[in-house]
Inverse folding.
């Protein structure tokens, strides 16, 4: 290949680049589009109750009404999402997450043979119905820094059912409110 052919190839590449960018510039001049100053469609996101919202004065969830939505049978079905990381059987072994048998009524991070995140250890609250509900909405938002990488349960019926199911898996279940 001689120098003249190489020059033709390089010229063709440069010409193609100039044409592509030139067409873009010319079309933006010919077809000028004014962008709207505000969004045409406003999407309102649902407000999720978290610990920060609770302490700022927002209305607390009526746990009695919430638990009335759920059933233990439905909770067993929904808990299958959790069973990849947790066991709820008595005498079960820790998996990625700790065993949840009898967890309601206990202090957070209280299973001795499981390595909890510092955030959960420092949380130091007792797993009540209300506390578990707030945690299950979105664990990462309720306890910042927790290792639990679960998106949460958005449906109230699902959360209520899982809480009732977990409470039933205990030697001394908490009394329903």
């Amino acid at each position: 290949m001689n120098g003249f052919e190489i020059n033709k190839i390089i010229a063709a590449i440069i010409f193609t680049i100039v044409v592509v960018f030139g067409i873009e510039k010319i079309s933006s001049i010919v077809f000028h589009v004014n962008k709207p100053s505000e969004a045409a469609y406003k999407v309102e996101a649902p407000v999720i109750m978290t610990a920060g919202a609770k302490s700022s004065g927002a209305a607390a969830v009526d746990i009695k009404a919430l638990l009335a939505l759920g059933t233990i049978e439905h909770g067993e079905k929904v808990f299958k999402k959790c069973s990849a990381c947790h066991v709820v059987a008595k005498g079960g072994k820790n998996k990625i997450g700790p065993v949840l048998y009898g967890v309601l009524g206990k202090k957070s991070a209280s299973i001795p043979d499981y390595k909890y995140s510092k955030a959960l250890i420092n949380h130091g609250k007792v797993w009540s119905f209300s506390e578990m509900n707030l945690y299950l909405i979105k664990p990462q938002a309720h306890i910042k820094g927790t290792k639990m990488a679960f998106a949460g349960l958005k449906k109230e019926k699902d959360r209520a059912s899982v809480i009732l199911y977990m409470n039933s898996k205990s030697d001394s279940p908490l009394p329903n409110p």
In short: Confidence is low (pLDDT under 50) at residues 50-59.
